[in-house]
Amino acid sequence: MDVHTKELEYLLDNFWCIKEQDPSLYFEIKNNLDYYKNFIQTKLGSRLLINDRFIKLEKIPSAPKSYMGINDFTDPLEYVILFIILLFLEDKPKLEQFILSSLIDYVKNIAATLELDNQPDWNLFHHRKCLVNVINHLKNLGIIKVVEERLLFTENTNAEALYETTGLSNYYVREFKGNILEYTTLNDFINDEFANQNENIGDVRRYRIYRHLLYSLVTYSEDLNEYELDYLRKFRGPISNELSKYVEGELELTKNMALLMYPVDSKAKYDFPNNKAISDIVLMVNNSILDYVNSGKMVLNSNETFSITKEELFQIINDVRNDNLEYFSKNYKEMPKESFFSEIINYMKEYDFIKNDDLGYKIYPMVSKIIGYIPKDNKEQLDLFGGNL
Predict the structure, then answer these.
(1) Backbone φ/ψ region at 335: left (φ over 0), alpha (ψ -120 to 50), beta
(2) Does residue 40 register a pLDDT over 90?
(3) Distance between CA atoms of 119 and 108, rounded to whole angstroms?
(4) Measured distance CA(368)–CA(364) in Å, rounded
(5) How many angstroms separate the Cα of 15 from the Cα of each of 84, 138, 210?
(6) Are 138 and 85 in contact (CB under 8 A)?
(7) Which pLDDT does position 148 carry in this prediction?
């Protein structure tokens, strides 16, 4: 792997690189574009935006996954608020200032005018928290700056703040070729990029394969059509060699799965494992499921998957909880068993470890690739379960 591909990995792992925030990194990426620009254009077919303020790699996946949302968002209302704020910022030039009260009035009025299903009510603590989460998201991306803040909007509806726009809001959303008002599914938005092109041949098929590998945590055979499967089988060698030149990950292909395995100290793609306590618990559950298979209690089918009843999986997860309860946060210690099970299951489904099926749940081979455990001789509270809820 070339030393300059660290810049490519930064673009893959981050929304963009803003010159004002990190000028040395900005120029390092810009000055070394020749090392990976051709890879981006010919293999990923992705758009690379370069100007005197930022560099952005637009990462449009081949298939939508639930973990591809904004990690800090947990409520659909946050996405509603986000795009209304982007409308608010659309015509504001760089350095223009605005106050919080004008922003919250705008958000509420637009939501009501558009008769949206998600209507913010600032009398509700949760809705105020959603707004603050969105503002923090925009601050972290360098789209707005805080000039002054008085009190916290989550605690006081009369809180006031002064913000400044950086002029980057118009670059947040990518450009679309079609009329998005006519789109009804996630795939409509993804397929917009290659409208009127045959996605099963030529460049587009190659783009889709590389995007599956680089933009997704894992790709299963069911995620690919027959043309993509054929391409991956025929060109697995060249694909592996090409990826080894540009990223740290090592391509691993099995009958049912394709993924890039990254070094332990590498930033995990799409933030798994992450700093949430539930992420660490899922690592433990994965380890127990692997033990379950290795003990001979379950045999994998030809697609490297197996089905398990809800009762069996509930027992595995409950055993993990009982065996490691001393390491859990207060929230998970006191959580009812059924609620704990549901939360773990939903999180595992979100990251493609399991899916529902007729028997109960289908377990996918990714479970065996990302596991964790606690040394039995360790009796102290571990950082492993010290993450945020």
Answers:
(1) beta
(2) yes
(3) 7
(4) 8
(5) 20, 12, 19
(6) yes
(7) 93
The mean-pLDDT minimum among 96-110, 264-278, 321-335 falls in 264-278
Return contacts of 238-242, CB within 8 angstroms, 24+ apart. Answer: 239/209, 239/210, 239/213, 242/39, 242/43
Which residue shows structure tokens 């909007």? 153
Q: Classify residue 158 by its DSSP letter.
A: T
- Which CATH code for domain 76-171? 1.10.10
- The token duo for 33 is 């574009």
pLDDT at residue 173, rounded to an integer: 93
Check if the beta carbon of residue 362 is closer than 8 Å to that of residue 374. no
pTM (predicted TM-score): 0.86
User: Cis omega before residue 273 (within 30°)?
Assistant: yes
Max intra-chain CA distance, the chain:
65
Q: How far is CA 384 from CA 261, 277, 287, 319, in A?
A: 21, 8, 14, 18
- Where are the domains positioned within the chain? 5-60+176-261, 76-171, 272-385
- Using CA atoms, how far apart are residues 43 and 308, in angstroms rounded to an integer? 38
Quote the pLDDT of residue 276. Answer: 77
Could you write out the three-class secondary structure of 273-322?
Answer: CCCEHHHHHHHHHHHHHHHHHHCCCCCCCCCCCEEEEHHHHHHHHHHHHH
